[in-house]
Write a structure and sequence with these properties.
eight-stranded mixed β-sheet; 12 strands; globular; 483 residues; alpha/beta
Length: 483
């Protein structure tokens, strides 16, 4: 009997030798601000039949992580198959002012590679009858808009297509009380009764505040709404006879947007769902090895029979000779006006995090996060002295440890820092060295210059964000103090 590796290898060879017009289509679902809260990943409060179907008929990855927990940096990495820290695209919404960021000469966005290979490239909703607007890109570097032929595959002719279906995901629930209520009404119209807030289980560092519960329930309903959109695109593929000819990737751009989620390197911010279904993908399979989201770029090229560029840091995780990663890395840098630098490495059991600004609080002032009602509720409870000790210590301590170490396989929410534990010093030393080596080998670009910061802040200051100027001044004062 042939081994799975032999079958997969034969399938990939067959894909690679097909004429361009007979090669598989490639479809990426990319949902915003969403963790792995799908029923195929163990979520019990909502049902997600479309994504569950993809998992049942394909391969589900249980340890998939983004290399950046914020959209522009994560998307810059995904679309190039490169660590955002290696290509200088690691500061959120950077290169938007007078000073620009240009990719290294040997780095080419994935759509350009597909286009060169004869694919019709598009980015949109995956649905017919839309207004023709292309989907979200948000790349931090200069790029040629012509790498996308259209917002939809309908005009492809006989060519195979590569499409990114961009979904609003967790953003559907909004940021305010009113938006949350409005979304609950929409959920009821389209999917039936919304999720009951009283049945919600929050991470242990969030208090059971009424609005936090309503917000999390609305978030779970955004998972349902995302699944509904996926089901509609699947039905379109089936109706057009394309479903079996298409590699489908379902993933998110990073984890849930919450106080300790998006922007941070704990599982809440970096762990994502990743499901593959289609040609060359084992059916009904679950993989528990470490995956980085930049691997999606490499595997998609390989399935399409397109050579993976030399130097691409993403890996073809479907390759016959693929050797599973023993570590996965992530980085957080400036987010909007808020300067930070955090790096992490995880192995099979442990997650190591290094804070380069330990004298700053976790929740530094940030107009984006502070504008969210959930964060306002947390800050109000902090000011009133009513937060539970765990929440107070993790979210509002005026400083952070320089190093954090968690046994993430048993400490699901990363609340027990083992960095000072004598019995874990060997692990701490090992992961510290691995992170140093990765930063050196991948040429981590590190902090941005003050000129670049000022260039991007000039763009932000054109918007009427409250306290933005005050926050920028604080960032500069802390930097001058060496904080």
């Amino acid at each position: 009997m042939k081994t799975l590796a032999a079958i997969l290898s034969a399938c990939l060879i067959a894909c690679a030798t097909l004429p361009a017009e007979n090669r598989p289509n490639i479809l990426w679902f990319v949902a915003e601000d969403m963790s792995a809260h799908f029923s195929c990943y163990g979520e019990t409060l909502v049902r997600t039949p479309a994504v569950d179907r993809l998992a049942a008929e394909g391969t589900r990855f249980t340890k998939a992580y983004v290399t950046a927990p914020v959209c522009s940096a994560a998307r810059s990495a995904l679309i190039t198959g490169m660590y955002q820290t290696s290509i200088g695209a690691h500061h959120h919404r950077s290169g938007r002012g007078k000073l620009k960021i240009h990719l290294p000469e040997n780095v080419v966005p994935i759509p350009a590679l597909f286009q060169k290979a004869g694919y019709f490239t598009c980015i949109g909703s995956g649905m017919t009858g839309t207004d023709g607007a292309k989907g979200k890109t948000d790349y931090n570097f200069e790029w040629d808009k012509s790498v996308y032929d259209s917002h939809d595959w309908a005009g492809r002719g006989d060519r195979p297509f590569f499409i990114q279906v961009q979904l609003s995901g967790g953003k559907l629930r909004g940021n305010s009380h009113k938006q949350c209520r409005d979304f609950a009404r929409r959920t009821e119209r389209e999917l039936g009764p919304p999720t009951d807030p009283e049945k919600v289980s929050l991470p242990p560092y969030y208090p059971r505040d009424p609005f936090l519960l309503r917000d999390w329930a609305a978030y779970l309903d955004s998972v349902r709404m995302t699944d509904l959109h996926v089901s509609r695109v699947i039905k379109r593929l089936e109706a057009e006879g394309l479903f079996e000819k298409t590699l489908i990737v379902f993933m998110t751009d990073h984890g849930i947007s919450h106080a300790r989620g998006k922007q941070f390197l704990y599982d809440e911010g970096t762990r994502i769902p990743l499901v593959l279904r289609g040609p060359c993908v084992p059916r009904g399979s679950t993989r528990d090895d470490l995956i980085e989201h930049i691997d999606v770029a490499a595997l998609s090229l390989a399935v399409a029979g397109i050579p993976i560029p030399d130097g691409m840091q993403g890996r073809d995780i479907l390759a016959r000779d693929y050797q599973p990663r023993d570590t996965a890395f992530a980085a957080r840098d400036r987010c909007d006006e808020t300067v930070d630098r955090i790096r992490s490495v995880r192995a099979d059991r442990f997650l190591y995090i290094r804070n380069f600004h330990p004298d700053r609080p976790l929740l530094q002032p940030c107009v984006y996060k502070d504008g969210k009602e959930i964060v306002k509720a947390l800050r109000a409870a902090h000011d009133a002295g009513t937060l539970p000790d765990l929440c107070e210590n993790l979210l509002f301590c005026p400083s952070r440890p320089a190093e954090e170490l968690y046994e993430y396989t048993t400490d699901r929410f990363q609340v027990n820092n083992l960095a000072a534990a004598p019995e874990h010093q060997a692990t701490l030393k090992d992961l510290r060295a691995r992170l140093d080596q990765w930063m050196a080998e991948t040429k981590d670009r590190g902090p941005e210059s003050m000129d670049m910061y000022d260039s991007d802040m000039a763009v932000f200051l054109k918007e009427p964000y409250p306290k933005l100027g005050e926050n920028i001044a604080l960032m500069k004062r802390w930097a001058a103090e060496g904080k």
